[in-house]
Write a structure and sequence with these properties.
heterodimer, A: mainly alpha, B: mainly alpha, flat, disordered N terminus
């Protein structure tokens, strides 16, 4: 390198330094720029959402335009559908993840399933809504909370498959060998040893899946639809928080829009709480 | 394992089964048979679950194709190139939503990719440790915020802001420049292609940042230190060592973000304007595939209308499938290179 000989004042060296200073300044600027947008969004959300937050929101039904009311029925609807989706999706996801990590770690089927699962993980959720519409709504002839729950379950499965596989892969083989050496059959080895060792990570996966579906709107639009009233019939249309936010925000009524902001704040808080808990439980988890 | 408790693990086989109590005389052959049966059953169960993942995918493809058959039969391949979208005369074509989908995602990528890469560079090379972790966590938390939040913010805050300040400026600034005057033509609506693209950019930014940071972190420190040892500046290390080493990973991450942007529904639906036409101006309202479906599906009457909506859903799925598959192949190549 010629620059070394000619010392720090050579034009080439100065040029390289200038370039470095400029690009590093751009890196600082980009970070400031990016973070400030995100801070702005959260700031506005808290500002607009908090003003409407009151006990009423959690105790009253969605109002007709012009009247006062709360978000009780969509909150309950969301909770119930999320619960059912997790109930359906988790066992399937855990079992599939178990196959990928324990039985078929290197076989052909696993590599195909892994690939397809990764694609399902980021597949457009509105397409999943269309799928469940064709599968359930069109067959049964009406919208229903069950269809909404199944649509959400389809989103849960790939998330749980992925984390279960990752976490089981981290379990040291010596544990498995120790279990096998005392004569434990493989299925019991997985259930009694591997699952226990990977438990925290697997719970993290489920929490992340809940966080993911609690804000999903698109798959519910034409599966669970919406319902202005209280219902405990999962065979009828059920309202959910995201769909109500969508409907209220696009309405011309001021108080509906205010409720939409409050609902948005509630969802964001719930999602943030879930992902923080998941982080806390899972520690430093490697993401895809 | 700290949870192996009171009794030796081997006894699980005899005591844990439930039906066989310790008090009973144990028939070894019978127990072994039970265990073998349980073992097989569990293995087949997990295998069935793994296959179920494939069934879900084929179910999606099959149901979309089945649902869109009437539209395919009626319009044929011409559906892809037809701009009309008229529920009254039942004449539908996909080119306007496809155009909107591709253009909004393109705008989003043009903005978010450089910024995201620079933030990742900041996080991996410049930022002190104590600051890097909180920012990294913040970015990851933000990547998890539901898209409807971005949508509602875009509708009530960002679109009015653009309408009042940014768009009039763009129109007057580029009004006399040959090509750009067409790009920024028309009245400032606030909502439209550009707004949707910008919202998407903000939305995929944490995503791109988080993936590229992970990828940059995977560069062996030895390589970077050697370059620094030769006297390279930070930028030169990033440009000539980190980026070439991680290229496939970065491309994979960008494609993954593109897949998200293409299929994104709620953030776009609020601000796109839902107008089925192709306008040269990016200030004009437009539509995307997902926004069209979200806006019109529940109100669609008639087989052909519904079926056309499902058909554009199928087109969206095919496009994102290709993009995502490509992304995964790229990321797999990076991992193979790192010997994972």
């Amino acid at each position: 390198m010629a620059t070394l000989a000619s010392g720090a004042s050579s034009p080439l060296y100065a040029k390289r330094r200038r370039k470095n200073v400029v690009t590093m300044a751009m890196a600082y600027a980009a970070t400031g720029f990016g973070l400030s947008w995100l801070a702005l969004i959260l700031g506005v959300l808290f500002w607009e959402g908090f003003s409407g937050l009151s006990l009423r929101v959690f105790t009253e039904m969605t109002p007709p335009p012009g009247a006062s009311g709360g978000l009780l029925n969509p909150i309950i609807g969301s909770l119930v559908m999320t619960f059912l989706a997790v109930l359906i999706g988790t066992p399937l996801g855990v079992l599939a993840g178990t196959y990928l990590a324990e039985y078929g770690r290197y076989d052909r089927l696993s590599s195909v399933v892994r690939f397809i699962n990764d694609i399902l993980l980021s597949a457009p959720s509105i397409v999943i809504g269309l799928f469940i519409y064709e599968l359930m709504v069109a067959q049964m002839g009406h919208f229903s909370g069950w269809a909404g729950a199944v649509a959400l379950a389809v989103i849960v499965v790939p998330v749980v498959v992925r984390t279960t596989e990752d976490m089981l892969t981290l379990v040291p083989d010596t544990l498995r060998e120790a279990a096998a050496s005392v004569g434990l059959p493989r299925s019991l080895m997985i259930q009694k040893v591997a699952y226990r060792a990977a438990r925290a990570g697997m719970i993290t996966g489920v929490l992340l899946a809940i966080a993911r579906i609690s804000g999903e709107t698109a798959p519910l639009l034409f599966t669970a639809l919406n319902n202005q009233f209280w219902t405990n019939n999962m065979n009828a249309p059920v309202s959910s928080l995201p769909v109500v936010i969508f409907q209220f925000a696009l309405s011309p009524y001021k108080d509906w829009q205010e409720l939409a902001w409050t609902g948005a704040l509630i969802i964001t808080m719930a999602v943030l709480a879930l992902s923080i808990t998941a982080r806390f439980l899972g520690g430093e988890r490697k993401k895809s | 394992m700290n949870s192996s408790g009171e009794r030796p693990v081997v006894d699980v086989a005899f005591q844990g089964g439930g039906a066989i109590s310790a008090a009973e005389k144990v028939d070894r052959a019978k127990v072994l048979k039970r265990l073998r049966f349980g073992d097989d059953a569990f293995r087949h169960l997990t295998r069935a679950a793994a296959i179920a993942v494939l069934v879900i995918l084929s179910g999606i493809i099959f149901s979309l194709v089945y649902g869109s058959l009437p539209a395919i039969q009626k319009f044929g391949i011409g559906f892809l190139f037809d701009e009309s979208w008229n529920p009254v005369t039942e004449k539908f074509g996909a080119i306007a939503p496809i155009y909107g989908t591709v253009l909004t995602s393109l705008i989003a990528m043009l903005i978010a990719v450089p910024i995201g890469l620079f933030i990742a560079l900041f996080l991996t090379e410049l930022c002190p440790m104590w600051l890097g972790r909180p920012i990294g966590i913040a970015v990851e938390l933000l990547a998890g915020i539901p898209s409807i939040i971005y949508g509602i913010w875009g509708l009530f805050v960002f679109a009015p802001f653009l309408q009042q300040y940014v768009q009039p400026f763009l129109i007057s600034a580029f009004g006399n420049v040959p090509v750009l005057s067409n790009l920024f033509a028309g009245p400032p609506y606030g909502i439209g292609i550009l707004t949707a693209g910008l919202i998407l950019a903000i939305m995929v930014l944490p995503f791109i940042t988080s993936i590229s940071r992970d990828v940059f972190d995977a560069v062996p420190p030895m390589l970077k230190e050697s370059a620094y040892g030769l006297g390279c500046t930070t930028w030169e290390v990033a440009r000539y060592v980190v980026l070439p080493f991680t290229r496939v990973g970065v491309i994979g991450g960008v494609m993954l973000a593109l897949g998200r942007a293409l299929g994104e529904t709620m953030a776009v639906t609020f601000v796109i304007g839902n107008a089925h036409r192709i306008s040269g101006s990016i200030l004009a309202p437009g539509t995307t595939i997902s926004a069209t479906i979200a806006n019109e599906f529940t109100e669609a009457v008639g087989d052909i209308y519904t079926s056309s909506l499902i058909l554009i859903g199928l087109i969206l799925f095919v496009i994102t499938f290709i993009v995502l598959a490509f992304a995964r192949l790229m990321l797999m190549r990076l991992n193979a290179r790192l010997g994972k």
